[in-house]
Amino acid sequence: MHILFCDDEKEDIEKYKIIAVEIAKNINIPLEIHTCTSAAEVLLNIEDYGAFVDVLFLDIGMVSGKNGMEVSKELRKQYHFAGEIVFITKSEKYVFDAFDVNASGYIVKNKTSDIRIKEVIGMAICNAQEKKKEYLLLKGIGEYRNIALSDIFAFEAKNNRIIVYYGDKQKFEFYSSLDKMQNTLLIYRIIRVHRSFLVSADKIVRYSYQEGLCLANNMQIPVGRKYRSNVKTLLHL
Q: Per its UniProt record, what SUPFAM superfamilies does this chain match (predicted)?
């Protein structure tokens, strides 16, 4: 799970990071944490990793540039950010505005109790995790198949059909297009890496220029030239 903290007070970031790591460890969820201190950095991070940020902790009252509420609205409307948003602030005056962006929590510095802070952070992490357990209903040749998104490794376009590879060496053919699947599944960390392939970012084990991607089920997936930079950004290469 990917979490992005944005607060111009670094000591607060460290406090919430410790809580998030502890909660995730207790429920066996691996975390990758990113941090930033300004609205401009938030937008850059979301532009690079937006589809892969599961939870965003955002300070409303950042001193430089736009405030957190303005940024959150821009993220929802222009970047189509679908992750959980938790607001961090020194004031309660924006609490009702939080509903406009479907925020999952609101922490008031030096006022919200430690117990409540843990509840808010825990709820956001659990909500994000639940999204990963959703199912995809696909129409094949004479049958429907309901597949857990968390079980999916890759989609391949072949002979005017799509093949989904999932579970224990299972596959299923259905009618659709990769363009349509790409737009639908981006929020679930399923990304385009080739004109004929979508892959689950969570299933990537390694990448090399010569061999492309190796997935957790040992599938080898080629990476198209136009998609290499996105893959490298995702894998921090």
A: CheY-like
Taking the chain, what is the end-to-end CA distance rounded to the nearest angstrom?
18
H-run or E-run covering 184: helix 178-185
The percent helix, strand, coil of the chain (3-state, each to 5) is 40, 30, 30
Angle subtended at Cα 16 by Cα 38 and Cα 51, rounded to the nearest 5 degrees? 60
Residues 110 and 188 in one domain: no
Give CA–CA dist 201/203, Å, rounded: 5
Place of tokens 């391949």: 156
Residue 105 one-letter amino acid: G
**Which residues contact residue 52 at a Cβ distance below 8 angstroms, ignoring those fewer than 6 apart?**
2, 189, 201, 234
Question: Which of the 8 DSSP states describes residue 192?
Answer: E
Strand partners, 87: 58, 106
Task: Let me know whether 16 and 101 are in one domain.
Answer: yes
Q: Are residues 104 and 169 in the same domain?
A: no
Q: How many domains would you assign to the chain?
A: 2
Which CATH number does the domain housing residue 71 bear?
Answer: 3.40.50.2300
Domain span at residue 30 reads: 2-131
> Which of 131, 155, 172 is the last residue before a domain boundary?
131
Cα angle vertex 198, ends 167, 124, to 5°?
70
In whole angstroms, what is the distance from residue 18 CA to residue 145 CA? 41
Per-residue pLDDT tens digits for 131-157: 777 888 898 887 888 898 989 999 999
